[in-house]
Every structure is written in C-alpha cells, then in structure tokens.
Amino acid sequence: MDFELSEEQQLLKDMVGRFMQDRYDFEKRKGYMKEPAGFSDEIWAAYAEQGLLAVPFAEEDGGIGGGPVDLMIVMEEMGKALALEPYLSTVVIGGSILRTTATAAQRSALAEEIIGGACKLAFAHAEPKARYDLAFVETKAEQAGAGWTLTGVKTLVMYGGAADKLIVSARVSGGATDEAGVGLFLVDPKAAGVAIRDYPTQDGLRAAEVTLSGAEAELLGETPDAMAAIRQASDEAIAALCAEAAGALGKSLDLTVAYIKEREQFGRAIGSFQGLQFQASEMFVELELARSMMMYAAMASRDPDPQERSRAVSAAKVQIGRSAKRLGEKSIQLHGGVGMTMEYSIGHYFKRLSIIDRTLGDTDHHLAQLDAVGGMAA
Amino acid sequence: MDLEFTAEEKAFRDEVRTFIRENLPEGTRTRMKEGRGTTKADMVDWMKILAAKGWSAPRWPKEYGGPGWNAIQQYIFTEEIQLGHAPDPQGFNISMVGPVIYTFGNDEQKKRFLPSILDCSVWWCQGFSEPGAGSDLASLKTRAVRDGDHYIVNGQKTWTTFAQHADWIFCLVRTDPDAPKKQMGISYLLIDMKTPGVEVRPIQTIDGGVEVNEVFLTDVKVPVENLVGEENRGWDYAKFLLGNERIGIARVGASKAKLRRVKELAASVPLGAGTLMDDPRFRSKVWETEVELKALEMTQLRVLSDIAIRGGKKPHPASSVLKLKGSEIQQSITHLLMDVVGPYAIPKSDGVEGSNEPSVGPDWADAIAPGYFNYRKVSIYGGSSEVQKGIIAKAILGL
C-alpha cells in the first residue's frame, strides 16, 4: 500500500506542470480557443515533442509504456490549466482501444502517428437514444468485400470535427442493447458517407454530431466483438476525467482563496470573515476527497476483474460529481459578481467541472451502476 | 502507487482478525454490534485479553509494553478491531495518559503507572474540559496552588467520559494565573479519584445514557510527585496528545461495520412484498454513503502512506479532513439506521436489564434512536467541526 509517486512520475508531474505554466495561462487559452479547430496545433505539436502523446503506448510501439497513474498525472496538470486539446480521446481512449482491440499491425502504425502528433482521434460511440448506456449501439456495420460500411448517427463526439481518424462503434448483430455483436472501426472523417456537424460545448471545447451513410470503415482487431474493450476504455477515460476534474478543483480552490485574501469589503479582506472561511474549508474537504478518489480510480482502472474495476470507477465518478458541484458552486459564490463574468477564469473552471459531471455518465448514472452491482460491497 | 498490502501485512491482518474472532467475549460483541455501548467489565475484560497478548497499546513502543508496530500494522489492527465489533483499547489509558507519562514523565512515574495503564486494571479518565473551557480549552480555570509537598486543587471539570468508572484522572490545572499567555500557566497533574474532595456527578445525555460526568475538585490534596514533566508546561503535553491520534480518528472501520449492519437490517425489514433493501431510494442513500466512506478511507490511506514513508513529522494536509468528514459520515450512518427502523424508532425501552416485557418492534429497534441522538456528540468532541474548519482555514489555506 503506497500512494507515493515514483521518481519518474514526480519528474513527469514537474515537467507537465512547468509546461502548462509556461504555455497555458488563462489569457493564452483564450487565444487557443479562437483557432479553427478550437485548440492550438502548436501546443499539440509541443505535447508530441515533450513525449506526452507517447505516455500509454508500449515501448515496442514507440511509446513510453506508462500506466494509469502516469495518465492521471498528465490529466491532473491539464485540468489545472483547463487544457483544450483532444488528449482524452486520442491518448487515453485511443491508447486503451489500441491496446485491447487493434491488431499488432494496426497498433504500431497508429501509435507511431499518434505519438508523432500527426493523428488525433475522436471516439464516436454515444448515440442519441443511448443517454449513458454504453451497450446501446444502433449504428449498423455491414461487410462489404474485404472491408465494412457503417450507417447510423453518433452524438456528442468530442473533437469529432478536428479528428484525423474516428474510432466508431457499430453493431454487426443483435438488438440495440446487446453486449455481443458490437465492433470498433476506424473511419476516415473525410470519406464519402461521413457528415460531421461541428459545434462548441458549454465548457469551451468542441464536439460533433457524426452521421454515417454507408461510410467505408476498417475493423479494429480480428473480430467485431468489442463491448468489453469499450467498457475498459470508458473506465480508463473516466479515471482520467476524474484526474482532470481534480486538477480543476485544486485550481478553483487556489483561485478562490487568493481572491478572498485580496478582496476587501467593510475595511478588511473578506477571507477574514468566518462565514467565508468555513466555506473555503468545506471546499478543501471536497478537494481532498476528490483527489483520493482520483487515485483510487487510477489504480483500479486496469483491474482485470471488470466488475471490481467499474465499481471503483463509478464510485470515483460519483465523488467527483459531488465535489465538482459543491466546490464549484462555492467557488463562484465566494468570488461574488466577478465570478459571473466571462472575462475572469473561475467561471470557466466551474463550467468545465459541470460538464465533466455530465460526461461518460453523471452522478445518478454511476449510482445506478453501483446499485446494479450491490454497492461498494464493503 | 499501489493499493495492495504486502503479503506480510495481509498475514498480520488475518492473525489479528482470527484473534479477535476467537477471543472477544460474545456478549461484548453483541452489545457493540447493536450499538448498546459496553459495560466497564466488558472493557476491562477485553483489555486484559489484549494485554495478555501484548496488544493492548497498539501505538506504544516495545520498551513500555507496546507491540512496537509500525504505522501500517497499527492501522490494520485498528481497522480489524472496529470491523470485528470489538472495543478500541481504552483510549484514556492507552492513547492519552500513557504516552504522556512515557514521553514526559520521570522513571518513578513510568514504573508506577504504566503497567496498570496497559491492562486497564487502573481506569483513567480525562480532566480537560470545564464549564467555561470547551473548544477554547486554554481558558481553563481549575487552580492548583503549591503547599509544601502538595498541590491544593480547586475547580470543576466536565464532560468527563466514564469518570464513574475511573480510578484516576489526569487533569490540566492552572498553576500560574499571571503567565503572559493563558497557555503558559497550565500544568499536567495526576489525581487519585479516591482523594477527599473529588466528587463525580453524572450528566445524562439526550439518548438517556450516562457516559459523561461533572467532576468537582474541592481542596483536593495532590502530592507534587504526581506532576508530570515541568510545572506550567502542561499545555505542550496536551498538544502532543492531540497530534498522537491522527490515524483512527476517522473511524473508517467502525463506519464500515455499521454500514454492513444497515444493509443487513434493511434486508430484514419488510416493505411491500419485499424488504427495505428492495427500495431503490433507500439503496441509493446507502450507496452514496458508501462512496463517501470509500473516499474517506482512501484519504486515510494517503495519510498513512505518508506517515509510513516520511515518519509523520509534518502532518499531511489531508489529515485535517479525517475528523471532520469522519464524524459527518458516522452521523449519517446513524441517521440511515433511523431510516431502517422507521416507525419502531418511536417506542422507548424501559431500560430495565433482564426485563420480561417483550420488545415493541424488532428486538434491535430500541437502540437505534438513542444511537442517533448519542452520535450528535462526534462532531462536538475532540475539536468540534467548527474548530476543524477553522484549523483548515488558518493552517492550510492561510486565511
């Protein structure tokens, strides 16, 4: 039992933290958001240079061979900076699916492109009627000669508009919520039969609706039987989101404490009032609980037992959702009017935290997931 | 990072678990499990069993009769005690006065007091709080005036837990009322409860029980050899105590055991065609509490990992949430038990031991409401939640 970072992990944390501090202050971020893709290609290239895109890939594929704790470290630092780039979909989700599903040839070819910064991925899985049910897939896959064609609608595809490749789930057999009969496919977003409607999200990121009409696709792996891999990727993504949220929570508290130390009313710093101090202390409690569950989720996210893994990850997502609401809402309240302005940073942290709670299953959904497995079984 | 305990640590856990299962008297286990509290005999018997095994003082070093366990072993032991519905080692003896005596006391005091502290053949209680000194403990007024070889002590202590069982009381007393700071004129004095002028009056709490007392001290003659350490340094010794109990203060093991009981009882309570556990609204409340408890447990393990690696010289910032969140969770579980018992929270038992009247409702029901009432204490004692928040605001957030 040990919650310490290794020496390499501490170096990684320092490196990413420094990088984000130098290249990603809040004013620069406003500029990155205005770029066509909604983030900075230059920063993406710099991630590649720093080796951040190589973290989860095996050494034989040119990667660093990092594990979930390494991804946790990167995501937490990115959360502090409200980083915009499609790191989650490309490196975390892409890394997981390549590991679990792709053939060796697909893996090494894609990994090389991803690591070099040439390929950004989007994960086109959710569908309009699915809400948070991972097994709900109506998009059809049909064999066409040596390849496949896909037909259906994918929703809320994070950075679907900026992606160089889409990873799309589609059903080869069975009804809409069957576990069996779902494959994962690679789709070129520029191919015929792919329509992408790109739009901004509430937190300043971008997503897309993807409509597939007989679009050409390449099956990932040998057989279209990927629900277990989708669940695994989702759990790893949730663990990473928990880390991003913990980073954003930590920064939100820092900003709030700094603000109430400085802001004076009635002739004194408002942070000297006990009413505000108590709220700040309650925010600290939420932060520490969230951090603890971030670590728990990271350590559990590769548990070979899928039930134990998803139990831990759901518990973490519930805690993060609660902490995000409790800490986030207070962070705006304690800033007062300035917290309401688009110009100031705290509201943007609050918005990202609120959206993370709705991503890959909200608090109620994960409580229902826990209910299905009899709670924490503690 | 790794969640797993080592093979040796797991073997140790199994050893502790087996020992508790085989040696904890059944009556004590039942009273603990049902939340009925323990008798003095329950505690003393259990302490003798633990002491015979050398386990009655998990945090003590070997040279004073402890097992010399490291932080992780101490944690595992505490967790197993609580999960096994066993009483924690008598806290006033083991966690409070013992460590002060072996750290600040002289050789004579160590020889005289430590053996009977270890097996609880002498029961100690704590004389810190006073009617006018609760959260603001340093404003205590009980006065000790030197008179030859004795101190003459006058004053009143309150909230003295199990003073009715106690043979001795360790007290903070004011020896220098003119000290420049109120913390500076306080001494740490050991007083035999049989000394003339010591009077104990019970305080009945809202649950109907008597755990706490007022202790009146009127011209009590205390030999000067019962002063621990130096005169006027008592505050430092008391502060040392407060830092002594970081792991375990969250009571994660006890809350886990209680949550299991919530589920067990809920599965026995009829509701419609099934049981209360079939009600998704009720279950959801249980899962939410379980998640919070898991977050607290992980926080505790982070602190433990820090202590195991760095020796705990500088407290981990997360340690400050343990008491605050731990008491919140303990309280919400007692409220969940109220949700379980439902209407049978209403009758109050006659409280007569061995009464032949059948219980109204399930035989466990009568302890539930008193347990809920009683547990309001946990966010008040040992540094109230407001004090904890103040500490976080000042010491961690710098407000």
Structural features, described:
The complex is a heterodimer of chains A (378) and B (399). Chain A is α+β, with helices and mostly antiparallel strands. Chain A has helices at 7-23, 26-33, 41-50, 68-81, 87-100, 104-116, 227-262, 274-300, 306-335, 346-357, 363-372; strands at 121-124, 140-144, 147-158, 165-171, 182-187, 194-200, 206-219, 264-265, 268-269. In chain A, the strands form two sheets. In chain A, strands 1, 2, 3, 4, 5, 6 and 7 form a seven-stranded mixed β-sheet that branches. In chain A, strands 8-9 form a two-stranded antiparallel ribbon. In chain A, α5 packs antiparallel against α6, α8 runs antiparallel to α9 and α9 (306-335) packs antiparallel against α11. The mean pLDDT of chain A is 97. Chain B is α+β, with helices and mostly antiparallel strands and 399 residues long. Chain B is built from twelve helices and ten strands. In chain B, the strands form three sheets. Chain B has a four-stranded mixed β-sheet. A four-stranded antiparallel β-sheet of chain B has the order 2-3-7-6, with no helix packed on it. A two-stranded antiparallel ribbon of chain B has the order 9-10. Chain B is globular, with a radius of gyration of 22 Å. Classes of the chains: A alpha+beta (378), B alpha+beta (399). Chains A and B meet through α7, α8, α9 and α11 of A and α8, α9, α10 and α12 of B.
H and E string of chain B? HHHHHHEEEEEEEEHHEEHHHH
Main interface by residue count: A-B, 41 and 51 residues
Indicate the mean pLDDT of chain B.
Answer: 94
Structural class of the helices, strands and pairings of chain B?
Answer: alpha+beta
| End-to-end Cα distance of chain A | 18 Å
Biggest sheet statistics of chain B: 4 strands, mixed
Summed up, the helix count of chain B is 12
Amount of beta strand of chain B: 5-15%
Could you outline the blueprint of secondary structure elements for this entry?
The complex is a heterodimer of chains A (378) and B (399).
Chain A: H1 7-23, H2 26-33, H3 41-50, H4 68-81, H5 87-100, H6 104-116, E1 121-124, E2 140-144, E3 147-158, E4 165-171, E5 182-187, E6 194-200, E7 206-219, H7 227-262, E8 264-265, E9 268-269, H8 274-300, H9 306-335, H10 346-357, H11 363-372
Parallel strand pairs in A: 1-4
Antiparallel strand pairs in A: 2-3, 3-7, 4-5, 5-7, 6-7, 8-9
Helix pairs in contact in A: 1-4, 4-7, 4-8, 5-6, 5-7, 7-8, 7-9, 7-10, 8-9, 9-10, 9-11
Chain B: H1 7-23, H2 26-33, H3 40-53, H4 71-83, H5 91-104, H6 107-118, E1 124-127, E2 143-147, E3 150-157, E4 168-174, E5 186-192, E6 198-203, E7 212-223, E8 227-228, H7 234-242, H8 252-266, E9 270-271, E10 274-275, H9 280-310, H10 320-341, H11 368-374, H12 385-396
Parallel strand pairs in B: 1-4
Antiparallel strand pairs in B: 2-3, 3-7, 4-5, 5-8, 6-7, 9-10
Helix pairs in contact in B: 1-4, 4-8, 5-6, 5-7, 8-9, 8-10, 9-10, 10-11, 10-12
